[in-house]
Design goal:
Blueprint: H1 2-23, H2 51-55, E1 61-62, E2 65-66, H3 68-100, H4 112-115
Antiparallel strand pairs: 1-2
Region (Disordered): 26-46, 96-116
Protein name: DivIVA domain-containing protein
Biased composition (Basic and acidic residues): 106-116
């Protein structure tokens, strides 16, 4: 019985000390308010994105996953750059097809049939 009372008193003392510390009864006062993590956009604005830029992209974790606004902004930027690159590739392929068309000036050497 004595051991049981000793354990109950020790438990009450420990719970009380922890409660006072957390609530602000200690010397340092109350715990400071934690500042929420904010997304620091590491994507470079002065040059096109590279694979390493996307691989290094990390989002701060929120209560229910990631902040939708941060993810939407990053995906919007990636989508715009991909659309720009696709348009540039299409333009270059069109120019290349026009250069290879019959009767156009080509950079290829003339064949024997062309010289006759």
């Amino acid at each position: 019985m004595f051991m049981f009372l000793f354990l109950v008193v020790a438990l009450v003392v420990v719970v009380g000390a922890v409660t006072l510390t957390v609530v602000g009864g200690g010397e340092s006062g109350a715990l400071p308010e934690a500042s929420p993590e904010r997304f620091q956009d590491p994507l470079p604005a002065d040059r096109p994105l590279h694979r390493a830029d996307v691989e290094m992209l990390r989002f701060p974790v929120a209560v229910r996953g990631y902040r939708m606004g941060d993810v939407d902004d990053a995906l919007g930027r990636l989508g715009a750059e991909l659309a720009e690159r696709d348009a540039r590739i299409a333009d270059l392929e069109t120019a290349l097809a026009g250069a290879r068309a019959p009767g156009s000036h080509s950079l290829e050497k003339p064949t024997e049939d062309d010289q006759r």
